[in-house]
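Ticket #4471: complex job returned nothing on first submit. Input attached below:
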Amino acid sequence: MPYAFVRGRAFRDIVIVLVLVFGVGSIAMLLAHVSPLVAFGALFDGAFGTREEVAETLVQATNLLFPALGIAVAFRAGLFNIGAEGQLILGGFAAGWLGAQLPLPWYLAIPMVLVAGALAGGVWGAIPGFLRARFGANEVIATLMLNVVAVLLATYLVNGPLALPGSGASETPSLPHAAQLPDLVADSRLTWAFPIALGLAFVLRWMLQRTVFGYELRAAGDAPEAAKRAGIDLRRTAFVAMALSGAIAGLGGATIVAGELHRFNTGLSPGYGFIAIAVALVGNLDPLWIIVASLAFGVLQSGGIAMQAEAGVPRDVVALVTGLVIIALAGRRVVAARRST
Amino acid sequence: MFFRSRAGFLTLALVPLCAAAAGCAPKHAANGVPRIGMVTDVGGLGDRSFNDSAYAGLLRAETELHAEGTVLQSRSAADYAINMTVLANKEYDEIFAIGFLMAKDVADVAARYTKRNFAIIDAVVDLPNVTSVTFKEEEGSYLAGALAALTTKTKTIAFLGGIDIPLLRKFEAGFAAGARQIDPSVKVLVKYTGSFDDPAAGKELSGVLYDQGADIVYVAAGKAGLGAIDQAKRRSDVFIIGVDSNQDGMAPGKILTSMIKRVDTGVFRVCQEAVAHRKRSAHLVLGLKEGGVGLTDFHYTRSVVTPAKIAVLAKLRTAIVSGTIVVPSTREGLASYTRLPL
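Support reply: We reran it on our side without changes. The output follows.
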């Protein structure tokens, strides 16, 4: 049964998110015996206190923005892609491995690394897309399972056939300087990945609102029966949407490798692909609102670590709040979808 | 639709944020208390070994140097760079990366934050603002090998390592060289578990080594060592030699000794330099001479480790400290190592 995702009142979502973040967050902080004022103070100071901290917040926002945009594309087509994590990891792997192999000038190396990441993520997204289109397999389960397969596959490859002799870490060799995304702000990890992600959000919004494919995709998500009768090929739409969704997440993985880590490491994501589900939902599946949502969650991510360092509140508080946001917003959508069908 | 009208507003909202990223002035550490940050590897605090030892050094710096310490634990490799970046942004005076797994992240973050000072344990990062702290594990392992050769009844001892990398081969080479110094006819078996976090593999492979005739196994394999200790507990007349911190009490009488690596000393030394605002060392190498490695006091195994054996070990120790014995740290070095008449 196709999901009818009801996209809804952004205002109510924002209230839910604020209550969860500040309400539940405060309770968790009190349980850690720290005044919420001090803890939130440390969090916001850690996210905005200095030029470098703002830059790191934008780094975290970028890392969430790519998979969130990918997730939004799939969700808008009515496909619950929760495999962004695996798509991001394999994208990063392809970028890191290929980037370290070929010595090329930067104008070839950087596009190659990014395209490789997008292709790998796209293939990983296309698998559940194909299973859904061909056999009607539930994409939730397929994407969820493929996350595990992606991590294990990348781990096997970097520790097995592609292992570096003499290194104990599960990673590829370092990218040559030419394949690294240039820094945007001195003394920070902020690279050109951020403007690329912003640009991508605008392109996706244009695609969804202004192109025939975008229309078909939204129609397939909002009213699959009607779309089918109107002659839209739901299978093709599902396949393409999943591949595109995976490609965007994979591109995100490639920017992490080319911009921040300068190598692929199996632990490159602390769960960006999962947090991005919350980002996409808070952003109401609209690419431009997702930019805002990714900035908000970027604040929580970078500020959360500073909060742990400065106020002694475990940053699990941030994970707790993020998880509750996912449950609340995704849950509300499922309830709304039930009512409407 | 309402989206269109808000698109412009969104773009406007982004502008000041980007401007802020380019324009804010950096803050400075308050009240002159030296602030020392530490990033653990994925083993984390509570590993009763490497990270805990580093933390002990930080605690010592807090009491003796009146420094303020902060530890950020890493859940995944992605956290290494993020945690270091957060500490660098918070103007910490010294930022420790605990473990060779973080070498590339330290190099990366230190290259970006040229005004901050970093230190890495167990790896060498060649940057002006990074202090590398490494240990001569081969020297401590040499004494462990000598003691094992003095103690074995089956004329067979064994080394069980984690991952087969140069760092672990220092343990292996030193151990085998020490055994050869005592008795060249003692056989030294060598196996690697392939990871540092698999107690089951440690248990199984130590069992294999015991079955092959070894009665003493030197385990340098992180958490896999816990499995090896478990295996030794089920057998009689066998011993384990522990590693990194004093593990003797984990199975009293079963652990012949532990090759202690004073990560805490390394951390404390770097903190001293940081607090005194002295020029930081580029590379601290801590061996027997510097008190960076050594054996335990045989608290639970006095019945086996006789005063005569302790005297031999003391003699070897003096020879290493004075430079008479140069302990090999690689397999190539071990191959050409010949015992010295003492």
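Chain B has two domains: 35-135+264-286, 137-261+306-335. Closing as resolved unless it happens again.
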